[in-house]
Specification:
Layout: H1 12-31, E1 46-57, E2 60-68, E3 78-84, E4 90-97, E5 110-119, E6 122-133, E7 136-146, E8 153-154, E9 173-180, E10 183-192, E11 195-203, E12 210-217, E13 225-234, E14 237-245, E15 253-260, E16 265-273, E17 281-287, E18 293-298, E19 319-320, E20 327-331, E21 337-341, E22 349-360, E23 376-383, E24 391-398, E25 406-411, E26 416-420, E27 433-435, E28 444-451, E29 454-459, E30 464-469, E31 478-484, E32 488-498
Parallel strand pairs: 1-19
Antiparallel strand pairs: 1-2, 2-3, 3-4, 5-6, 6-7, 7-8, 9-10, 10-11, 11-12, 13-14, 14-15, 15-16, 17-18, 18-20, 20-21, 22-32, 23-28, 23-32, 24-25, 24-31, 25-26, 26-27, 28-29, 29-30
Bound molecules: beta-D-fructofuranose.
Length: about 500
């Protein structure tokens, strides 16, 4: 049986009110779950996925997000909304967009992902209206605007781009908009004959859009559909970041190259992975004040990813999904990208432990028990010249009796970093792995952020990042640093307990 587009029964205003009421009823109960994150952003309750509309607007950071405000599972998409003065403490705002119009009201659709721009003081968001008609997917690009940055009106001329060009297909979504030399540009994710693509448009006013061609596309090995494309200038070059479907283990890719605005073509020479973990998807970038480019991503996985089990055990506690810590994106001298946690996170640091020039051998326990916590920041540097250890690692979120533990292990023999969560919590599985760049005598550096149910690991001078979820018991808070098969000199080790941001 084909689903027909849902009938418009509520105005946009009424649909928003109804959504707010649903969240109000459940948020207290959802807020009590001990596995809720303490400094990673989440909705007050129920489902979230992609970050949307990230923007620094009138002195504050705005974060919108894909949201289903009626259950802790994916459903007709709304845009949740929050703002922050420092990227760490977030204030929840009323839900910004709800499905309400013929082009975005649908049981399997809604207000899909998009972006925000400041149009002369008017906060303007472009999103994908998703519906089905006669069993066919219809995705169009739509505009909504706000004068106060909180209440949004959908543009009466919507959709501003009713459907894909001949270069694309019905999968036609996730507009990312920017301004260059007085003209608005938009990149939209699409696909044709199994080839993922980023399509380019331009506009004088965000309302009339002209198709300008294929900005970039897969060479046949880079996925069948490019979700959430993002395009931005960085130190004289351009970066295209996207989330490819059907690219095996790889699910967040960046390309560094040059943009030719005359031909509308982006030519790239460098490719890399934004994150190697199992739960990091759909990163979106924004210019984050102080000349910085910042990205935030959704901390979960889709059912088409090779490692997908389900969306995690928290749904029974009325929430599902969260956002990564904001990371800056910097261009290294060799054309690769570096991703660093924003400095602002340092405000969360509390008790501090520091050692340096300390020999670590098997069976030695260095880290005092009082540092155990479900919220930690760890920075470590190991001297690799003279290292006889075969493996160097951290035991995270350990119950102390071997029942629950997560192992982060660098294997010197294979040069790989593995996040082993087979004993994390009785639910999580798999061993996400990344081959590190570091070689020879170059030190091994790890920068780790642990929050209640997520671990972010930065290494290789911030070129290799790995983000994964785990769901241990609140009491499993043990932390150890260890070696196997030999010893290593710890050049320095810092551990901070972090406080909650809420
Ligand atoms: C990416 C995505 C987008 C889409 C949204 C729907 O995670 O599939 O392509 O707009 O999620 O919620």
């Amino acid at each position: 049986m084909e689903l027909l587009p849902a009938k418009r029964t509520l105005s946009h205003r009424e649909a928003l009110l109804k959504a707010e009421q649903s969240i109000s009823k459940i948020k207290e109960s959802a807020g009590k779950d001990p596995s809720r994150l303490k400094y990673h952003f989440m909705a007050p309750a129920y489902w979230i996925n992609d970050p949307n509309g990230l923007i620094f607007f009138k002195g504050e950071y705005h974060l919108f997000y894909q949201h289903y405000p009626y259950a802790a599972e994916w459903g007709p998409m709304h845009w949740g909304h929050a703002k922050s003065k420092d990227l760490v403490h977030w204030e929840h705002l009323p839900i910004a967009l709800a499905p309400s119009e013929p082009y975005d009201l649908d049981d399997r659709g809604g207000v899909f992902s998009g972006s925000a721009v400041d149009d002369n003081g008017v906060l303007s968001v472009l999103y994908t209206g998703t519906i089905h008609k006669d069993g066919l997917l219809i995705q169009s690009q739509c505009l909504a605007t706000s004068l106060d940055g909180i209440t949004f009106e959908k543009y009466e001329g919507n959709p501003v781009i009713p459907g894909p060009p001949a270069d694309g297909s019905a999968d036609f979504r996730d507009p990312k908009v920017w301004k260059h030399d007085g003209t608005w540009y938009m990149v939209v994710g699409s696909s044709k004959d199994g080839i993922g693509k980023a399509l380019l448009y331009n506009s004088p006013d965000l309302r009339e859009w002209n198709y300008a061609g294929v900005l970039a596309e897969s060479d046949g090995t880079m996925g069948t559909m490019w979700e959430c494309p993002d395009f931005f200038p960085l130190d004289g070059r351009y970066v295209l970041m996207f989330s490819p479907m059907g690219m095996g283990q790889r699910k967040t890719i960046y390309l560094v190259g040059d943009m030719n605005y005359t031909t509308g073509r982006f030519t790239w020479d460098t490719m890399g992975d934004v994150d190697y973990g199992y739960e990091y998807y759909a990163p979106q970038s924004f210019s984050g004040g102080q000349g910085r480019r910042i990205i935030i991503a959704w901390l979960n996985a889709w059912d088409w990813m090779p490692w997908f089990k389900n969306f995690g055990p928290t749904s029974k506690n009325h929430w599902c999904g969260a956002m990564s810590a904001p990371r800056t994106v910097e261009l290294a001298e060799d054309g690769r990208l570096e991703f660093k946690p924003v400095k602002e996170l340092e405000v969360l640091r509390r008790e501090h432990y520091h050692i340096e020039q300390t020999e670590l051998s098997p069976e030695v326990q260095l880290i005092p028990k009082y540092l155990g916590s479900d919220c930690l920041e760890i920075k470590a540097e190991f001297e690799m010249s003279g290292c006889t250890a075969e493996e160097i690692g951290f035991l995270l979120r350990s119950s102390g009796d071997g029942v629950q533990q997560t192992l982060l292990v660098y294997d010197k023999r294979t040069g790989t970093l593995t996040f082993d969560r087979s004993r994390s919590d009785g639910w999580s599985e798999g061993t996400p792995t990344a081959a590190l760049e570091r070689t020879g005598a170059e030190p091994l550096r790890l920068h780790i952020f642990v929050d209640t149910s997520v671990v972010e690991v930065y290494t290789d001078n911030y070129r290799t990042v790995m983000t994964n979820n785990i769901y241990p018991n609140p009491a499993s808070i043990g932390l150890e640093v260890f070696v196997r098969g030999g010893s290593v000199n710890i050049t320095s080790l810092d551990v901070w307990k972090l406080r909650s941001a809420w």
